[in-house]
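Quick one:
INPUT:
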């Protein structure tokens, strides 16, 4: 093949890849019924929640640990359990509406859009169910476990697998359009902002791909596994690593802006709002940093490792700890506003909707706490 022919072939390949990723250049629809309350994965909710955490509205028991984070769409709460079932319950009463059996545990947090609910399974599959009935619409097999949580951009669903690929599927049929390869498990969930698709990996790297061309923009190497999901805000990427360091990178280049060391692994994802970033560490501490320079603003100590991601709603931070508690803390001062004790580790990420907060526990239950 001549040089001009090779150049033409490369150009055609890039254009096809871009069409697959972007669906002819369109942008994702705004949607908060997913992990981290949106495709940028900032963990910021539009609703407000309770401060005191003293009013238990209901508790829904399952037969396995609930590590999947509940998501609320309309008046329905969706979540998976380690009893190999995926559930839909009433947000008002906690009454079961339906459940669907999978072939193994469900760790992935669901995404709800257009009357469909999408999630991954430990059984190596990505699922799409009818959100109203739980009826299976499609199921697509990957090479290994799927603990990542999906996002959708114009009809294309993005989700990671432990087979070292980030999958791009058609949301309508589940057809595999392509795989973005890495060198390790992908438990982190993909974040999208403008032209950047970013996620962490077991190979200790954070990856960014271009949505316009499908090419890898950069790969940033940390010194530990990156389980956390990046948050993309104002041309910056915020993510923690199991090396105990929290990183701020330029989202376009992967160049480090600042880094902040802790004394434990960072597994959960950060909440980012305005000039503040909030995250927990396995050193049992919740940190608030200046988003511009990484300076410590305040810190809050719990009695257990913090593996839960942090959620922010109306000036209140919600997160779980391995001391079995769900916490509510002032985002401004770091003052504790309330806590609720479950009977197991709280690694699920709180979801705020309609004045209530919803969270799962290793005791096998999902809890709904409302205003006092």
């Amino acid at each position: 093949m001549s040089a001009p022919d090779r150049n033409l072939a490369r150009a055609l390949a890039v254009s096809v890849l871009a069409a697959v990723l972007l669906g002819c250049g369109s942008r994702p629809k705004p949607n908060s019924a997913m992990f981290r309350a949106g495709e940028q994965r900032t963990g910021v909710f539009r609703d407000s929640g309770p401060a005191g955490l003293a009013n238990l509205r209901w508790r829904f028991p399952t037969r396995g640990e609930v590590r999947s984070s509940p998501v609320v769409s309309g008046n329905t709460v969706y979540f998976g359990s380690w009893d190999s079932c995926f559930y839909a319950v009433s947000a008002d009463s906690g009454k079961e509406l339906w459940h669907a059996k999978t072939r193994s545990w469900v760790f992935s947090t669901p995404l709800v859009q257009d009357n469909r609910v999408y999630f991954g399974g430990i059984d190596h599959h990505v699922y799409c169910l009818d959100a109203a009935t739980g009826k299976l619409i499609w199921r697509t097999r990957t090479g290994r476990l799927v603990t990542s949580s999906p996002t959708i951009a114009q009809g294309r669903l993005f989700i990671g697998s432990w087979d070292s690929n980030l999958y791009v599927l058609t949301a309508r049929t589940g057809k595999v359009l392509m795989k973005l390869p890495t060198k390790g498990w992908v438990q982190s969930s993909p974040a999208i902002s403008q032209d950047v698709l970013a996620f962490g990996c077991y190979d200790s790297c954070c990856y960014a791909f271009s949505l316009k061309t499908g090419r890898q923009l950069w790969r940033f190497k940390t010194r530990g596994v990156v389980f956390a999901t990046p948050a993309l805000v104002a041309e910056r990427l915020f993510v923690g690593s199991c090396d105990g360091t929290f990183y701020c990178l330029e989202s376009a280049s992967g160049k480090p802006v600042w880094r902040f060391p802790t004394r434990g692994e960072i597994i959960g994802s950060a909440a980012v709002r305005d000039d503040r970033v909030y995250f927990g560490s396995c050193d049992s501490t919740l940190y608030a940093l200046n988003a511009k320079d990484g300076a410590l603003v305040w810190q809050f100590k719990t009695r257990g490792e913090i593996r839960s991601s942090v959620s922010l709603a109306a000036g209140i931070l919600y997160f779980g700890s391995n001391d079995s508690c769900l916490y509510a803390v002032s985002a401004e001062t770091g003052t504790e506003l309330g806590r609720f004790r479950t009977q197991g580790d709280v690694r699920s990420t709180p979801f705020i909707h309609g004045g209530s907060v919803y969270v799962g526990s290793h005791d096998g239950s999902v809890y709904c706490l409302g205003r006092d």
